[in-house]
Amino acid sequence: MSDFVIEARNVTKTYELGEVPVHVLKGVDVQIKRGEFVSITGPSGSGKTTLLDVLSGLLRPTRGEILIDGKKISEMDDNALAHVRGKTIGFVFQSFHLINRLTALENVMLPLWFQGISEEERREIAARTLISVGLGDRLHHRPTELSGGQRQRVAIARALATDPDVIVADEPTGNLDSQSGATILNMIDELNKKEGKTILMVTHERYVAERAERIIHIKDGLIQSSEKVRKTKEKAKGDYK
Amino acid sequence: MSQIGLEVFRFALRNLTHQGLRSYLTLLGVVIGIASIVTLISLGAGLNNAVVKQFEQLGSNTLFITVGAVAGGNQESGQSGTNLKTFVDADVEKIRNLPETADLLAPVVSSATVEFARSTSKVAIIGFDPAEGESFADSGFFDVQEGRTLEKGDGFVALIGSNVSRELFDKDVRLRDRITIEGRSFRVIGITKESAQSFGGGPNTNDTIFISLKAFEQIYSNADPIFMLVRTKTKDDVATAKAKVERIFEQRYGKDQKEVVVNTSEQILESIGSVLGLLQMFLAGVASISLLVGGIGIMNTMIMAVLERTQEIGVMKAIGATTTLILSLFLLEAGLIGLAGGVIGVLVGYGLAFLIGAIATSSGLALDVQLDFLLILGALAFSMLVGMISGLIPSRNAANMDPVVALRGAE
Fold this sequence. Notes:
The structure holds 2 protein chains of 2 kinds.
Chain A: E1 4-17, E2 20-33, E3 37-41, H1 48-55, E4 63-68, E5 71-72, H2 78-88, E6 89-92, H3 104-114, H4 119-132, H5 148-160, E7 166-170, H6 178-195, E8 198-202, H7 206-209, E9 214-219, E10 222-228, H8 233-237
Parallel strand pairs in A: 3-8, 3-9, 6-7, 7-8
Antiparallel strand pairs in A: 1-2, 1-4, 4-5, 9-10
Helix pairs in contact in A: 3-4, 3-5, 4-5, 5-6
Chain B: H1 2-17, H2 21-58, E1 62-67, H3 89-96, E2 101-105, E3 108-116, E4 119-128, H4 130-135, E5 144-147, E6 157-160, H5 162-166, E7 178-181, E8 184-192, E9 208-212, H6 213-219, E10 227-232, H7 237-253, E11 260-264, H8 265-308, H9 310-318, H10 323-362, H11 373-399, H12 403-409
Parallel strand pairs in B: 4-9, 6-8
Antiparallel strand pairs in B: 1-10, 1-11, 2-10, 3-4, 3-7, 5-8, 6-9, 7-8
Helix pairs in contact in B: 1-10, 2-8, 2-10, 2-11, 8-9, 8-10, 8-11, 9-12, 10-11
């Protein structure tokens, strides 16, 4: 098994906007160690979300290579990539992206279905996971019947259901009030510390980024710095705002 | 795999029930298309069944000889010297004496004013020789419900159709009642079974009064037949007998005569079959147009569904749904819309077919509509196929959607 759960080698991503090519990533190398908590920050339009998409196998790079669990994604077809993504990576999005006509339980069962797990087992795992994020009493509620913080917890449960190595979070607190945001950040923190999940999180806010062990700063499609966060005791406690 | 298949099915079904009014409206085109197909095919088959049954009763060794205009109004033919042709006695005798002829029935037809219980009605009267009728007893024309059929030596007695008995007069006509036909009193000796048999293309037996040829000749001076049934000794004699009969009429009316038509049961079945075939082809055309419209409706619904669920497709792909799964999910959803339309269409179609069948039979046109499970299965499979074909393009769009575009586009 490779030391790095995700690796980007000289990755570029170019979009053709009409006649004009837009170089969003201009050759980046990133290595994410197993069990690491990494934040990606940068100003708007810096390419941080594109980097996250590329690293998580949602987007294929224009040039360069992405390795997930040591396997080159360029050698996988879309179906194989979807399978690897579903197995290795759990996604948490800024706007939750839950399916509104399904209950919380059914939303969490969905990725397990894609992995070919039997319905009985899916139901059991999904219920257990929702209980672990504190939503044991909300299993049969639909997303529209839940608060923002609760929805994000359903999304986290969905990301955790397949027991992936990596949790990818894109501005996970962006749509939440400060209290709910703090709860979600603590939850992500715990997933890293207690369960050893690798966390890859995009945020534009410094104090959120500092919850990580390492911050990758990106600007104009190039990595500006990759710094270890020196943690004081206060920071480690999680003083969200 | 079948486990996954079942779950894709359930998920698709669930998506469908959430689509609401729009998917139900979409069904309409498919419902109309499938309903017309089912109605048409089952009515066609029903007509065919009835005709085949009727001709089978007559047997395949039967010749049908008609004068040219028999299908036209023959109401007053017997009495007034209209230019409608009838058979000449000498020709009838020649045919009767052919070595191939086993039995011959040459009924005479007219319309008469009939009185009963101080009410009058115009009724079709058929006169035939009871001796001849006996040999055609198995044809089903004279099956009786009550009483008996005409017998040799019968005088002014009548076998009446079931409708004549029940519907034509103020009072029901019963066995042993006396009715007056053109001023002559007849005793009712039998009532026919209700059937949809038409007597050689003439009036329906339910609406007819049968009397003996002898009595007929007493009422009408001119009692020449306009229709003949000839049964040959064996099935192999049919062709020879047909040729000989045609020669007899050629001698009378000249070569290429069109006054008399000689048909075999098979010929009649074939010609009915080809007319039915044409009718069904035309109606199938109508059905395909409505199915095309239905298909376009499904396509439209699916395009809307894919657009509305862009974000959902993005999420599903992000969290591990394969392109194949998304494709089959949307294809199945489209197929299920089609299938739902098909189920309703089959119900409506058979409802209509049975209704039309009942109306037609009660008004004298034989229609024997029956449930055909092959047709039902075929219609359902076809409706699902129409749905899936219509859903192909939108489903492919959904399956090939870039997860990032689908996700970020919705943010």
